[in-house]
Amino acid sequence: xxxxxxxxxxxxxxxxxxxxxxxxxxxxxxxxxxxxxxxxxxxxxxxxxxxxxxxxxxxxxxxxxxxxxxxxxxxxxxxxxxxxxxxxxxxxxxxxxxxxxxxxxxxxxxxxxxxxxxxxxxxxxxxxxxxxxxxxxxxxxxxxxxxxxxxxxxxxxxxxxxxxxxxxxxxxxxxxxxxxxxxxxxxxxxxxxxxxxxxxxxxxxxxxxxxxxxx
Length: 215
Description:
By secondary structure, this protein is an alpha/beta fold. It folds into two domains: about 120 residues, Rossmann fold (3-Layer(aba) Sandwich), CATH 3.40.50.720; about 80 residues, Dihydrodipicolinate Reductase, domain 2. The protein contains seven helices and ten strands. Strands 2-1-3-4-5-10 form a six-stranded parallel β-sheet, sandwiched between helices. A four-stranded mixed β-sheet has the order 7-6-8-9, with helices on one face. Strand 3, helix 2 and strand 4 form a beta-alpha-beta unit. Helix 2 packs parallel to helix 3. The longest helix is centred in the middle third of the chain and has 14 residues. The chain is globular. The chain starts with a strand and ends with a helix. The mean pLDDT is about 95.
């Protein structure tokens, strides 16, 4: 597939772009401030910053190209506007808080465990350059748990992306933890997103869950 890549020179993009090419995709990198010419492409991917991702996704949709957004921190209002545009153009818009398959499984396990241990808190730890706090993964996890579980955010050098779900009961504690040690962990999820993107309905889809369940 021919893919437009917003943020191909960034922390994640510099790992993903070569991996996509190694998997047989043709990558057209689009840097910050460059014209978003997406003609002839099958999909666009965004791994940039929250202040740029919505505009990049909008540019792709307006040019008739479905979009995969891996940038967290896009506001709910912006997602609603992008969803409406994607529906109007009959295009797919896939927004993924975390492309690591293990992180998706962590959220599933946390949701199942909360049926029996409903008191939960979330601790998310990321590198000091991450702009948004709490992370998109932590917010997505909280939405799957009962009540409004507190989220504790840590930003320190030496970290990549880590999260714990702590579920407490009388005399016991269940900890479900996922650690991303390198950004190569995102490659299988991004490849899956590109493979299954055309199978999604038009409009906004959030997360990889549906893609993991589809044949």
